[in-house]
Amino acid sequence: MTKKIRQFRPQLLMLCFACLLAACSSSSSSTNQIRLVEVTHSLFYAPQYVAMSKGFFKQEGLDIELTNGNGGDKTMTTLLSGDSDIVLVGAEAAIYVTARSTNQSVVAFAQLTQTDGTFLVSRQPIPDFKWSMLRGKKLLGQRRGGMPEMVSEYVQRVNGLTPHQDVNIIQNVDFKNLGNAFVAGTGDFAQLFEPVASKIEQEGRGYIVASFGKDSGHLPYTCYLAKEQWMKQHPDLAKRFTRALYKGQQWVATHPAEEVAAAIQSHFPDTGKEILVRVIQRYQDQQSFASTPLIEEQEYNHLLQIMKEAGELPKPIPYRQLVNTEFAVPVVKGE
Questions:
Q1: pTM: predicted TM-score of the whole model, two decimal places
Q2: Which of the four CATH numbers 1.10.940.10, 3.40.190.10, 3.40.140.20, 2.40.50.840 does domain 32-114+219-333 have?
């Protein structure tokens, strides 16, 4: 018996060593995995998909598990319940949570887009469109309380219109059905995201006549949020995530739309190359993609002002309370 044990001892040691390596590898993998939930799957988030396709997250040793949250409320629920580590959603979601809850501390630590991403689609081409042309018309709009709708109302006010009085805003259509509803005859105009707007234009069923993002200015439109506790527990993960994102942002900022489209094509297999290029070019032209992850205080205050004018700001949340720049600043500096 002793002889048999001695014969198997080397194999036993090798097996134990293999198990130890596997355990360490598994632990390392789970430690570097980030559960990321995006509010929707959109071309508007091109720098994020470039960071994934070009391997920038992998270069930082990160394994990104990406999930579509299908809406702001559902996306934020995953964060608050602990089912996600980071969420990509409108900054207003963090403001709502912070203003209404003393138990949940959420921070925005990086921005992805810096303008609204919707466009005004008309039934007829209007070469010299003016926002005053919405007066007395029906506008198929976005849901109340969301940034697209608040930006729309802000643009209307800036141009001398009173939302819901001068403009009949239709808000009883689900987000996913807005394009089909417009094509079916609902509204004189529609506020639509890409690529829906460009697809309707390509089919000759509507015409993009104005940009809400271009006419509303810069603001931290879509940001990465995390619980403050998670940020304190995983500062290295947060910084590596921010660095990978920055690489994606810089890549998009320095490459033509055709190359960006090719880089993210695998993330949008059902969208043709022509539409991809057209949409990305449009967003690049109006600087919708943030070139750095840093959330600027002036742009954040502009966001608060838009929310206040819309009557949707529960209470003003100071920049320093909601925005964490301890990772974005050194990343941009190359530290």
A1: 0.87
A2: 3.40.190.10
